[in-house]
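tokens incoming
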């Protein structure tokens, strides 16, 4: 009796899925045509909070930096290397983000310039993949 119940449940589960759910189509996999880099720029802020008992607790908040300049360079460069011309330049949106699209796979240096300071990172991209990089000031 137990075996019959297990077999009937297995048959039910196999037949309840439609063929379309197993087909891989353009809507099933959403990958970039070449390579992409998602950049997010933020800063940490501390605020003194008051409470009913008079305690002076400090809370930490993440604030995204909008309009930060992002420069993309081919290969590995330093922050003081102004001799190379960037491949592309962008500015972050209100959420501190920018998406660099349609890149060949390879090594890139991402340089971020903010009023707080500058930072750079080397990143290697892959075909049909989105890489993410976070800059925190």
């Amino acid at each position: 009796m137990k075996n019959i119940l297990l077999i009937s449940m297995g048959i039910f589960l196999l037949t309840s899925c439609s063929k379309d759910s197993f087909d891989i189509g353009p809507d099933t996999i959403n990958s970039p045509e070449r390579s992409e880099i998602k950049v997010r720029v933020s800063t940490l802020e501390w605020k003194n909070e008051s409470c009913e008992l008079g305690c002076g607790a400090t809370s930490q908040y993440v604030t995204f930096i909008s309009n930060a300049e992002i420069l993309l360079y081919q290969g590995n460069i330093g922050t003081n290397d102004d001799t190379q011309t960037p491949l592309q330049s962008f500015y972050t949106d209100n959420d501190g983000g920018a998406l660099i699209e349609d890149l060949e796979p390879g090594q890139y240096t991402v340089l971020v310039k903010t009023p707080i300071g500058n930072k750079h990172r080397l990143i290697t991209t892959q075909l049909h993949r989105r890489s993410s990089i976070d800059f925190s000031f």
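note: Helices lie at 2-16.
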